[in-house]
Prior knowledge:
Blueprint: H1 4-9, H2 16-24, H3 40-46, E1 59-63, H4 67-72, H5 74-86, E2 89-92, H6 102-106, H7 110-129, E3 133-136, H8 139-152, H9 157-164, E4 166-168, H10 169-175, E5 190-193, H11 197-201, H12 206-214, E6 218-221, H13 240-256, E7 261-263, H14 267-275, H15 285-291
Parallel strand pairs: 1-2, 1-3, 3-4, 5-6, 5-7
Helix pairs in contact: 5-15, 7-9, 8-9, 10-12
Amino acid sequence: xxxxxxxxxxxxxxxxxxxxxxxxxxxxxxxxxxxxxxxxxxxxxxxxxxxxxxxxxxxxxxxxxxxxxxxxxxxxxxxxxxxxxxxxxxxxxxxxxxxxxxxxxxxxxxxxxxxxxxxxxxxxxxxxxxxxxxxxxxxxxxxxxxxxxxxxxxxxxxxxxxxxxxxxxxxxxxxxxxxxxxxxxxxxxxxxxxxxxxxxxxxxxxxxxxxxxxxxxxxxxxxxxxxxxxxxxxxxxxxxxxxxxxxxxxxxxxxxxxxxxxxxxxxxxxxxxxxxxxxxxxxxxxxxxxxxxxx
Length: 295
């Protein structure tokens, strides 16, 4: 957005965070998401769209532009495009989609979540029928399509088709061994991997570990639970102390790991880990895969 600098600057004015805590309940200690001046969709259009022609592609993927990846953290989305294209995949970003409905669903606003689901299923089902896969950078959005949409739209065959064609980006690379078509530069680095709760619930968090190892990394997958953020929970002033207490369990496990750098696919997890004193924000594992590309 052109107004990203102003949007990012306003909360830093004296007294603003205290006022936000009193009026909307956002903990003043928590680092707020930043908006970028160029969204993922704008970056993709500016580069000229897909780099792999459809006629020459091994597969075709619609990369879902989730809210965080599109407007606040586009680097994992850019990395996903580069890695998929290195595997010979034709990648594009779909038009006509809404946010996944995950925030509304997590707050019990099922009518809103159902409307989001209907919008996205109607937009994506024609593509799925034509052989497209829908890939996601954000795990909670992937699982929303794979699982919750089936509950929100129980009688919809289209929702079932879209759910069957929905993958986390690393899950897609792993399941179809697309990373086997990529030349990697054998990075000499070890990683500590913290998986996402939603993916763990569906038994899908191991896919990232497989791709990272085949890319050349030594990976320590943590036996860890929730990071303590749980979407907006960790931003809420009334839950901040509890969020931090839960987070400290994860922090201790990370400190005990031999990995040189932490990677985590969930935006909330990366926020929690980046907010601890002296820590930098971890990368998404797809960013680590992109770093390992031999180019």
